Amino acid sequence: MWHLRGIAHPAAQFHALEMTAERAGSAMACPFASSAEYEASVIQARRAAGIYGPRRQRRMMLFAAAMLFIAVAAALIL
After folding, report:
1. pLDDT of residue 57
2. 34: which DSSP letter?
3. Which 8-state DSSP code applies to residue 33?
4. Checking CA distances to 55, which of 15, 26, 33, 46 falls within 20 to 30 Å?
5. What pLDDT is stored for residue 66 in this prediction?
6. Of 10 and 68, which is predicted with more confidence?
7. CA dihedral 33, 34, 38, 43 (to 10 degrees)
8. What is the model's pLDDT at position 1?
9. Which helix (H) or strand (E) holds 12?
């Protein structure tokens, strides 16, 4: 037998329609004001997950190497 869905359960269908509209409205909302904020958030999340590997402190290592070189050079000169 044929049943018309709109007539059989109008309250359930109305509720389902409301829920679908609510989800569709929230899907359009974006918590970021610009694409730069979004990209910064993505990079921060990836760093937290360890995707980019450990942070290397290149400047500090170069500074330490330069200071060591200067100290060795000064010791050789004196």
Report:
1. 76
2. S
3. S
4. 33
5. 95
6. 68
7. -130
8. 45
9. helix 10-28
CA angle 12, 15, 7 (to 5 degrees): 40
| CA 15/CA 23 separation, integer angstroms | 12
Those residues with Cβ within 8 angstroms of residue 32's Cβ, 6 or more apart along the chain or in another chain: 38, 41
Q: What is the pLDDT of residues 18-69, one digit of tens each?
A: 887 777 666 666 777 888 898 999 989 988 887 776 667 778 888 999 999 9
Encoding tokens for residue 39? Answer: 């990209």
Exposure of 30 in the CB half-sphere (CA atoms within 13 A): 7
Q: For the chain, give every domain's residue range.
A: 5-77
Would you say 55 and 48 are in contact if contact means Cβ atoms under 8 Å apart? no
Cα–Cα distance for residue pair 29/39, rounded to 1 Å: 17
Return d(Cα 35, Cα 37) in angstroms, integer.
Answer: 5
The Cα 64–Cα 66 span in angstroms is 5
